[in-house]
Amino acid sequence: MPTSRRTLAVAAVAALLLPLSACGSGDGGDGSTDASGKVEGDITFQTWNLRANFKDYFEGLIAEFEKKYPGTDVKWVDQPGEGYADKISADAAGGTLPDVVNVSPDLVAPLAEAGLALDLDKAAGQYAKEYLDGAWASHRIPGTEGTYAFPWYLNTGPLFYNKTLFEKAGLDPEQPPKTYDDLFDSALTIAEKTDGEVATLANVPTIEDFGRYGVPLMNEEGTAFTFDDAKGVELLTRYKELYDAGALDTQALTATPESSGKKFLTGAVAMNPGSALDLANFKKQAPSLYENIGITDQITSTGHVNMYVMGLMVNSQSDRKPAAVAFAHFVTDAAHQMSFAKQVAIFPSTAGSLDDPYFTEEDGTDETRVRVAAAKSLKTAVNYTPVLFSEQMKTELRNEVAKALQGKQSPKEALDNAVKSCDRLLKQQG
């Protein structure tokens, strides 16, 4: 599995701007959310860049489903990661959207608004209790009623830090930052002690960082963004202080998760977010770092860490809704999510699964330590990125943040401008 997909967990993808004139309720072109009836017929199941690493798993899963429901036939198609959003958009416009589609929350939003995503609260509400509340809610659209995808696998991760760099700066390597104040103070200390040669962070704040800081991101109706409030300005002001002091990497304005990861590997930055998958990479590519790796919790002002989530959407236009719903539920039920989680470092979204010993018992290795800590935090995690926050909006926010850090405008002006741009794009989506 390519780590560039942020460990299977919602790497940023292009916004979906469906070339459809009408918006619907998710009830489908036939006006029905009825998924009752016999489970039979041919359906198509589309995944997102999973065939290369999990061909045997999915072929076995499909065979098991077809055995359980004689008369069904599941055709599996897998699309590459690059251009996935564009592919879905083209299929949606052309009426060729598969029956069951692997989506992230930001991908399902325009499909739901176009009436192409089946409302599972109406069609399959009996299954809601099988999933974590936060996971089931992750594919809801603000300002509307309904849930538009079965939650599938989840991910989150800790902050990794370089104990050697902390120690060289006179900081206790066994006492990593626990609060934002701690983080900013430590970052300024490391920059000062190294004459600006070592930054602590490699990325500018994203929308999820504002969420973790406790900034209200949208109004309840889902009609306007609100991250330019006093708390949002406070966070960006603190980042400006880091940038000026050399505590935020000079290339942060153009950094990607991959480039930030390389900076951490080479000791150019002291802290970086990651997941259990990264530990194997550290061990292989930077053994000296691996020996001195520190692992701490995500820093948050809300008490809830950020959760990445994938889902399976059912096409509301499907002629085989009973089979499509049954298959999407089958793939995401507790047993199958657990089997998938044991093949790769992701986490099931089903209620009770995170209490399994696999996610609660450590064996002394860093890998299990990260897995156990992440599983515990996921029980109350939230997906901070608003479902309606498109890739274009992410770009607008990033551009305005860059201007603030460079001193071209104040943090308040930057966030006001970002909110105005995002609100404009939001209205265009409607």
Structural class: alpha+beta
Topology order in helix (H) and strand (E) letters: EHEHEHHHEEHHHHHEHHEEHHEHHHH
Based on DSSP secondary structure assignment, what is the total number of beta strands?
Answer: 9
Main sheet makeup: 6 strands, mixed
- Share of helix among residues? 40-55%
CATH topology of the largest domain: D-Maltodextrin-Binding Protein, domain 2
Please identify, by name, the CATH architecture of the largest domain: 3-Layer(aba) Sandwich
Low-confidence stretches: 1-29
Q: Treating each run of at least 4 consecutive H or I residues as one helix, how many helices?
A: 18
CATH class of the largest domain: Alpha Beta
Distance between the termini: 35 Å
- Measured by DSSP, the beta-strand proportion falls in 5-15%
Q: How many separate domains make up the residues?
A: 2
Q: CATH superfamily of the largest domain, please?
A: Periplasmic binding protein-like II
Q: Characterize the overall form.
A: globular
Question: What would the keywords be for this entry?
Answer:
430 residues, alpha+beta, D-Maltodextrin-Binding Protein, domain 2, six-stranded mixed beta sheet, three-stranded antiparallel beta sheet, 9 strands, 11% strand, disordered N terminus
